[in-house]
Amino acid sequence: MSQPPTATAKRLPAVPSWVGAEPTWSARPAELSGCRGEPVATVDHASRLVQQRMVNRAKAAVPALQSIDDDEWFALFRRAAEIVRHRVEGGALTAELAALSSACGLPVRRAARGILAVVDQMLRLDDIMAVQSLDGTTSPYRTGQTGRGWSWLPAGRTAMVRVPANFPTIAIEWLQVLASRRPTLVSTSKHDPFVAAIFVEALYEAGLPDGAVSICHDSAETFHRLADQVIWPGEQYPPGLDPTKLKLYHFGRSKAVLPEDPGDEAWTRLARLAFQGCGRLCTNVSSIAVPWSAQEAAESLAAKFAEFPVLPLADPAANIPAFTDPDDWNYVAKLVEREIAAGAEDVTARLTDVPLRVELDGTRFLRPTVLRVQPDSPLVRVELPFPFVTVTEVPRAELAHACRDSLIVSLTGKDDELLDLLVAEPSITKVFHGEQFDRGYDPIDPQEGYLADFLFQKKPVLPH
Amino acid sequence: MNNPLPLHAVSDAHARAVVRRHLHPETGSPFWLERDRKLGTDAYSKVDGWESAQELLAFRDEADQEAYEEASRRRPVEDFIPADVVRDDDFLWAAQTGGTTGLPKHATWGGAYWKHVSEFSHYAMDTHGIPRDCNWLYISPMGPHTIGRLVLDWAESRGGMFFSIDLDPRIVKIFGEEGMTQAYDRYVQHIWDQVTAVLQSQRIGVIYGTARLLEMIPEYVDAKFLKDVRGVVHAGTTLPVQSHKLLREDVFPGVPVLGMYGSSTTSISWQKPFEPEDEHQLVYIPSSPSVAIDVVDDDKNPVAYGEEGRVRVWRLTDDQLLPGFLERDRARRVKPYGAAAELFPWAWVGDPFSPEFTEGRRVEGVY
């Protein structure tokens, strides 16, 4: 049962489920559509019984994962990373990358670079995991020993990670869960079954024990019920999920605070921060607050945005993501258009004359946009899935409050007083300032805390 | 192997008899007589066998079939039955379709047809090893749904008692369409709470459930409550191949697992005897000649064996005529093979599925 049973699978990438190390076709594969409505791949959907088998395999894998010594464990990830790099750079994944590009609306070259960024992070997974552990080494993940009156133990035998289709770099989340030696149940989003499958295949080739990771594409209700812990992206999660075993991750609304005009180089870096991951990352700056002229600030940023034209996804210079679902495209465009109708200024439109809605060869885009808005605009507190930044004028005394509920706040220049206020605001997760204001994402940094804080618990097991 | 059943390929005599009964100028079915007059077919005089019945009577196009469907929703069910069948002493079960695709359609299952289906059903269950003299737990739609009464009949006539947990696929569809995820989840839990209560307190030998529910069993029911189960029968949407394998090998090892494909329209097709060459694909034998099922292409021609197409149904019984109804389901056309090929030498149906249900998994979730 290792081949999809339809004829269409002959020409398109066929993405199986993975029951541990076993690529599996549960039944009739679903056809995945690209951003022009064209079929791009056939994808398996694991039935509930197959998902149960994945969970059982995961539980059975626990002893094997604990038995591998640390050097070999992380060498395994490095081998897998090199396998993926070799395949991406050698052209072996051309069909998958094309399908990923169209299904997720990502420029082909950016999607490939996103995968390679994960490869680079896998090469240093030992460092990424060590920084999260109790003693700064990787051994507590394996031994649970703390040298104190309690142990540091997994808070469950299995963990499910739901992986959104935003951008391939998000794969590092479930890779960290696996690297903590936790059997991992990956639930991919409907639009991107590819990236997880690429890495899982390489991991098993590199020697990962059977059952350590499984993949169910699209909905995975059985995982929701049976996984001991669930890691879910964004802030909205299925109502049936038990909140006591749930961690939400990578919701964004990252902002920047500019006490004064930061200068041309900083504007270039801010624009780059907005375009990282095609504007689909939680770390993209989505709103800028200034205590000076929002008009001037918006124009400076819009001038930089104008250097990124909307290009076909296959163009090597493309940076702008497309919208696969016409309803999503329409919904997001309307959010912006309503705000303009309510008095916001589309600064990009004034500078470029490019309309907000762009269609190229049947593919739908929204052009990168800088919008000058009032501080109470609802768009200040949302992130949209394309390069989009609001600029608003806020009195200096209110800047920290205006940045509440943010993942990252970037502070340009040197302003210790403002820095203290931002650091003291409990709903801001990270503050980057000075030379590192555009640090973006590095898995070394805590992000909504460390994953290990959720995955492990301090538990006295006495006597030892 | 002798065929102990009244099943055979549709013969000219059978087709001619059914057509003449439904289109008899004096006692025929009002709806089919009206259609015959409207189309100028004169099928009563011209149909002399199965081939001419197909040529003259099959639904002409989508509009023709839709006219029938709407009539079956709005007109009295007697309009589709020959008057002498309405008058005779045999019972007529008023069947409704599932109602998940609009207002339910009405039809009947007459006594003779019921007997035909029952004989085939007991044969299939005995052949597959579904035990007699034990109680059944039925987890499927009751109420207006024909399957509830059918299974009740089978359980009791096989010497067991019938415990049932009702399902309402129509409300599940509403939950799905209106995004009522919590209500859906609560409903599913409600089903399993009831199932567990019966399994805890009663001696259950056979479980009947929709394929989707059977897939959930290990998640919701403690294995210790299933240890006395000696037979499993499933229907509804098709059980995926891997799930079929896992159900047989992991969830109910050594217990016969028997699939049924059917609806009020398509009647009952039973899974062929399980053989290794099936590779756990589900292949069904239609209950010909009461019902003729074929798998056709866009031009309504049967696809080649092994190919996929749309399911088309002919109902050829005294109480109902259904001339080439195109179901929403798709399936693979299967050439008879294995031990049962000689007994049932007409086209079989492989792995049927409903495309719209595959997209909307909420409806498929329980049904």
State the main characteristics.
heterodimer, A: 464 residues, alpha/beta, Aldehyde Dehydrogenase, Chain A, domain 2, 2 domains, seven-stranded mixed beta sheet, five-stranded parallel beta sheet, 16 helices, B: 367 residues, two-stranded antiparallel sheet, 13 strands, disordered C terminus, ANL_N_sf (chain B), AMP-dependent synthetase (chain B)
Concise structural overview:
The complex is a heterodimer of chains A (464) and B (367). Helices cover 36% and strands 20% of the residues of chain A.
Task: State the separation between the terminal residues of chain A, measured CA to CA.
Answer: 47 Å
What is the percentage of strand-forming residues of chain B?
Answer: 15-25%
* Rounded Rg of chain B: 20 Å
| Tally of strands of chain B | 13
Main sheet of chain A, how many strands, which sense, barrel? 7 strands, mixed
Give the strand tally of chain A: 22
Give the CATH superfamily of the largest domain in chain A.
Answer: Aldehyde Dehydrogenase, Chain A, domain 1
Question: Care to describe what's here?
Answer:
- In chain A, the strands form six sheets. Chain A has a seven-stranded mixed β-sheet, with helices on both faces. In chain A, strands 9-8-7-10-11 form a five-stranded parallel β-sheet, sandwiched between helices.
- Chain A has 16 helices and 22 strands.
- Chain A is of the alpha/beta class and 464 residues long.
- The model of chain A is unreliable at 1-10 (pLDDT under 50).
- Chain B has a domain at 12-89.
- In chain B, 38% of the residues lie in helices and 23% in strands.
- The interface between A and B is medium-sized, with 21 and 24 residues.
